[in-house]
Amino acid sequence: MPFSPKRVAVFGASGAIGSAFAQECLDRYGTAKVFCFARSPERIPKHDRIESHAFSLEDLEGLQANAEAIKAVGGLDLIFVATGQLHSATAKPEKTMRSLSIASMEETLHTNTILPAMIMKHFLPLLPKHKKAVFAVISARVGSVSDNYLGGWYSYRASKAALNMLIRCAAIEMQRTHQSSVVIGVHPGTVDSDLSKPFQRNIPEGQMMRPAKSAAMLLDVISKVDQSQTGKCLAYDGTEILP
């Protein structure tokens, strides 16, 4: 039976991939309600089936309140977390260990690992217990320990590797109460976005994807994923990324 979610939550919905994913859900699922969350909700796309909310790690009470409100109207069938940070004004990818700093590492782990963990805590219980539902969070191929042959990018790699462990732990726990749920990490490919802009000159021609294409491919993966894949990290083409 095709996966056709009626209630979708998108975190990071003002970003390139998050906003494209929300739009793809609207286009693909004609009656779906999409709850969009972003630090800057005014940047969330406007649509009569979109309900916009502000959120941040500094407002955990607000995050819990939003979860309770959505639970009261029927819960969720699909949760997509598109939050993430590779660089900021104060945190840059470290090429060598000489560049490591506590502040930079804390900032990256805060965004890439702790925030998704808090979303898991409050929103995974909103998935139904007895039918297919999916929690998908953007991870990255560079979070694979076994696939790391170049080194560098210490904080980003570590934050995504830690996220992959959280995904695995959550998948195991959810199987005890929500046997039909699937919890996965997804690698979106190299997407034309603010995250990749400083590094685009080093990307081979033809490897850059538009956000809409990446979002569509990720939703294809999500629609086909099954119980045998819960706890894993999958690329945009459906292939598994090894831990």
Automatic annotation (TrEMBL):
Provide the coiled-coil residue spans: none
Query: Which is an annotated GO molecular function term of this record?
Result: oxidoreductase activity
Q: What is this protein called?
A: NAD(P)-dependent dehydrogenase, short-chain alcohol dehydrogenase family
Pfam families annotated for this entry? adh_short
Q: What is the lineage of its organism?
A: Bacteria, Pseudomonadati, Pseudomonadota, Alphaproteobacteria, Hyphomicrobiales
Q: Which segment of the chain is annotated as a signal peptide?
A: none
Superkingdom of the source? Answer: Bacteria
GO CC terms for this protein? cytoplasm
The family database entries (SUPFAM superfamilies) matched by this protein are listed as: NAD(P)-binding Rossmann-fold domains
